[in-house]
Amino acid sequence: MWLIVAFVGGTGFVAVAPISIAVGVIVAAVLVVAIGLVLTLGAPRIVLTNEDLRVGRAYIERRYVGEAVAIRGADARAARGPDLDGRAFMNFRVSVPELCRISIVDPVDPTPYWLTATRHPDELARAVNEGRVRD
After folding, report:
1. CA 9, CA 12: separation in Å to the nearest integer?
2. What single string gives the DSSP state of each residue in the chain?
3. Which of 5, 35, 49, 119 is 20 to 30 A from residue 64's alpha carbon, by CA?
4. Strand 113-117 relative to strand 89-91: parallel, antiparallel, unpaired?
């Protein structure tokens, strides 16, 4: 993803450099910083509290959160593709290949699980499982 950001900055430089090299450098820097900020600040946040779990704008009460499992490598590719349940809540990022699958135990919610991309799937799964409400 950051290579694309660098490419856009380089493209901005090349587009403006014939007019002025200094302005081309400024345009490239502004583009790289602006796109970098959008990517960083625009990433959905995962927030887990004693009351709820939030992934981006999605939210569920903690009592309806079941077991969480970290998924990596070929299993993550399969989870995003052939093994994916269309009813699941999905939060994928191209630049983050690891996933965490969080089961939903609400009897009236048709969503079987949440599947979210995270750079730390083991830590998220551990945190969800440690605070789970068990019957």
Report:
1. 5
2. -HHHHHHHHHHHHHHHTTT-HHHHHHHHHHHHHHHHHHHHHTSPPEEE-SSEEEETTEEEEGGGEEEEEEE-HHHHHHHHTTT--TTSEEE-BTTB--EEEEEE--TT----EEEEE-S-HHHHHHHHHHT----
3. 119
4. parallel
**Given the structure tokens 């799937």, which residue do they identify?**
121
Check: CB of residue 135 under 8 Å from CB of residue 63: no
Could you tell me the two tokens for 116? 């979210």
- Tell me the two tokens of residue 126: 């551990």
Q: For 21-54, write each residue's pLDDT tens digit.
A: 999 999 999 999 999 888 878 778 889 988 899 9
pLDDT tens for 78-124 read 999 999 999 999 998 877 899 999 999 999 999 999 999 999 999 99
